[in-house]
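2024-03-11 09:14:02 INFO queue: dequeued item DUF1772 domain-containing protein, len=146
2024-03-11 09:14:02 INFO validating residues
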Amino acid sequence: MFKLVAVGSCGMYTGAALYISIVQHPSLLCVQDHEIQGRFFADMYRRATRFMAPLSVISSVSALSIWFFDKSEKLWLISGLLMASLLPYTTLAMLRLNLELCSVRSPARRSSSLLYSKLIQWGRLHAVRSVISATATTTILYTIQM
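2024-03-11 09:14:37 INFO prediction written
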């Protein structure tokens, strides 16, 4: 049961993260109106947070549970720790920028060039989450295949 939950939640997180990195964020950067960019980012952020944060927790807890009950399952430990690292990474590396980009009063939301540079910065930081989750998913899939 834990394996199914880990695979599903990790895969869903990875798919969403990659979609944002490869499709949604680059499309947002093409929008010419910085007011629309700011409103869209704030809405996207709120929706993605409600979807992705629980997936990272569910994935990490289920993968770590597999290792907890069978200490020989080291790859489950690795994937669980990778997924568990996403929440502190987001909090420490991205939260301040996320809040700035979501705040209507933020200087970044009033200047198109500043907003654009902050969105570029956000994209780079988010790409780290995509790589971490893709690594965790690949590890899980490799473990299941073994």
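2024-03-11 09:14:37 INFO annotate: Residues 2-145 form one domain.
2024-03-11 09:14:38 INFO item closed
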